[in-house]
Amino acid sequence: MAVVSRNHQRAPGNLCILVCGCAAVFAAPARAADLPAPAPAAASVDWYTGAQAVDDSWAVAVDGSTSITSNSSAFGSVTVTTALGSPPTVSGARVRVEAVAGTYSYPGQGVGARVTGYQQEGSLLTGYEWIWREAALAGYVGFNVRSNQLSIPDPGNPVVGTGVGLKVAGNFYATPTDRTMVSAYGSYSTKFNAYYSRFRVGYMVADGVYIGPEALFLGDDFFRQYRVGAHLSGLSFGPVQMSLAAGYVRDRVQGTGYYSSIEARANF
User: Fold this and answer.
1) CB atoms within 10 A of CB 95
2) Which pTM was predicted?
3) Are 104 and 7 in contact (CB under 8 A)?
């Protein structure tokens, strides 16, 4: 559920989950645009999990995501999105609140010891979402408050302290054919120049369940990272929809490794 930390996401995702200070990009909740039904009688696919959505009885979507890497980072995020003045299944204004927290560690080059970082971040965004029968596009703007602390001072890491930044984000989701999906999410914050992006394509292997590749690019003033892996989206367990992903990580500070993520969404 994106979303910037060194693990989203944030999300979900709405549901991604969309990403060190080193962390600000890792756990950002990875999200894309909601694609609910354009009308109560027309079935469509939820942006994040690929689950069918055919009604507009819900008003608030709550997304959660967790991501860990073998490069010593672990992050979690929660995102709440609501529609203003109209059902969430039609075009209209949106409000989104995000919270991200996590920890990471890396070899401090200037201190000769391993440094552990702790990050917390909160965001408040407003925007607009355009809904079509086979696609959805949303844009958001707002601010984020981010705090990064280190276990020991590291002169080589400028991403330390607490501050406020301007944040923008965008989501896209489409089903080009009856059995394929495409989703994309990106965000940027002026605080530490933190960015996060995720792109997914999928092929339907069961009703509402997609499998396919994903690629992520994330970073800030201290680190840069990319991830390449695979996702399984559209799993449903009662009212909860889920997405799983895993793959390869390449990090400027930590080198290569592996990542895994799990994301979930519930509508109220």
Assistant:
1) 16
2) 0.80
3) yes
